[in-house]
Hints:
Blueprint (H helix, E strand, L loop, with lengths): L30 H10 L22 H12 L3 H16 L8 H13 L3 H11 L9 H13 L3 H12 L11 H13 L3 H10 L1 H4 L6 H12 L5 H11 L6 H13 L3 H17 L9 H13 L3 H13 L6 H13 L3 H15 L9 H14 L2 H14 L6 H17 L3 H14 L8 H13 L9 E2 L14 E2 L6 E2 L10 H4 L2 E5 L5 E6 L19 E3 L4 H11 L3 E5 L15 E6 H5 L3 E2 H9 L1
Helix pairs in contact: 2-3, 2-4, 4-5, 4-6, 5-6, 6-7, 6-8, 8-9, 8-11, 11-12, 11-13, 12-13, 13-14, 13-15, 14-15, 15-16, 15-17, 17-18, 17-19, 18-19, 19-20, 19-21, 20-21, 21-22, 21-23, 22-23
Amino acid sequence: MMLIRPRFLSPSPPSSRREPLLPALSQPPEPSRIFSSSYSSSARPPGRQPRPPPNKRPPPNLRRLTARIVDLTRRKQLAQIMAEVEASKRRARSGRGGGINIIVMNAVLEACVSCGDVDLAVELFEEMRGPTGCGVDSVSYGILLKGLGLARRIDEAFEILESIEKDTTAGSPGLSPHLICGFLNALIEAGDMRRANALVARFRQVLYEGHSVLLYNLLMKGYIKSNFPLGALTVKDEILRQGLKPDRLTYNTIIFACVKSAEIEKAFQFLNDMKDEAKRDDNPELLPDAVTYTTLLKGLGNSRDLYSVLKIVVEMKSSLLSIDRTAYTAMADAFLACGSIDGALCIFGEIIKQAGNNKDLRPKPHLYLSIMRAFATIGDFDMVKRLNKRMWPDSVGSISHSAKQEADELLMEAAINNNQIDVARGLLRRIVNGKEHFSWTSRVGLVALKVETLSGFTNSPLRPHVFPQILLNDPVEKYMLPFRESRPLCGDLILENVVMRFLKDSVVPLVNDWGTCTGIVHRHDCTELDAPLLSIARPPLCVPSSTSLEHVIDLLLREKTEMVIVVKSGNMYEGSYTSSSRPLGVFSLALLSKFTTNTSDTHDARAL
């Protein structure tokens, strides 16, 4: 009888010992022995991998947890991150999966630094490198150094670097230019150039090992942030002395420094150097990119150089450069800054046309608002209204509440500049109903003031307050609060002992032992708890009791004070005060507000 070997089995190697075809039925083999013997045999089929032993679980896949931590970091939800990490630890202890590793904990460290909780980052770092921790690596050290640098805890960061240099830390990542440059960037972001230069001097040998321009690019960035942009030019000279070649980031940083210093001619000079070097070395990576041109457009817009703006726009479109939404927006902003609304509209139309095929080019609300500001200034109400209507469906990204308010304000400004008073009044009424307050010096405040002037008192949409209970010609003595009821304080008291008084009253008068008013203390002047009240008091503003209420209100507004002291007529001239003049009472803005009522309330009362 001939035995046929199955096709899915590979031929066995020759052996002098003949194995039985089947095991004896009286002694069934144990499954574990079959499992181990089959995988220890040299006759394993090719392409098959051994299965892990059943008593060892595969390491958990924590990619989903890491991605979740990164997403919560963007939302600044540190408490939720810590809760999910603890839940993963509990699942691992109960044998239901979960757990953590060094990648997960590095993401948690980054979340702590991003949310500004450096103390928690230090605590987690110590836990990671402890005996029961998951360990640390160079990424862990880099994140911790960045957090300490941003928190201005420089001494602790230097101690960590020195311990790494001495190789006494757990994990021993070793000093590297990448690790030090991360800490250097944190110092630069914090604006501490003195410590940044000290760091470079301390670890100069390690930083120069890589012979990279990354260090110099960071130093140039630091000079720009420290309000000394032209200091970046000296860094470029150092790059050339070291025998290194500037890269595209180097030139972009230098051009930005020139633009920030309003040195547009030097910026163009470096642009030409950038092109010449790229052509000489046949290096396309050195050619100007969108960042280069948008930086130049910003500087040209600030200098209102329309001819140069046109030149840069033509150069960008004629090159092989990929123009993105940011570049198009910079073109439109530069045209608007130069006063060329037509040029901005041409760029805007081109964006809208190309956005049909490329959704990434759809403009953001910023561009709509910029063009609306230009048309609102010249009073083109129809164009502003059209842009305001199309901003909602055609723009990309979220539209903030402030952007919505500004769109309505620009529509009102266009209406008032187009002499459409009734339309502007209706828009102003809608804006006032949606806002608790606004500044009169802001855009909406200036437009509202113009609408208020043209509308008159009776048609005012701002609902001004009136005084139905008082007459402005009456003497202030009729409406003042008696001085004793104002509960004056002694000027010798320390602020710390009476600080609770200023939580209730915004202004309090002071007296001496003879009952004379010696000053007035305002709440916002209380900045030192150990100071005597008399040292932070303002001189009292006094008026005779026969002064008209209208004049007292004007005096409060003109002198920007909240209280005046009323004294007996004949004791003093207005504005002067003698120690023999006893105060009769006080009159304040808080007291005045009790006599006011709203015009809408008055109309409602009349209707009833």
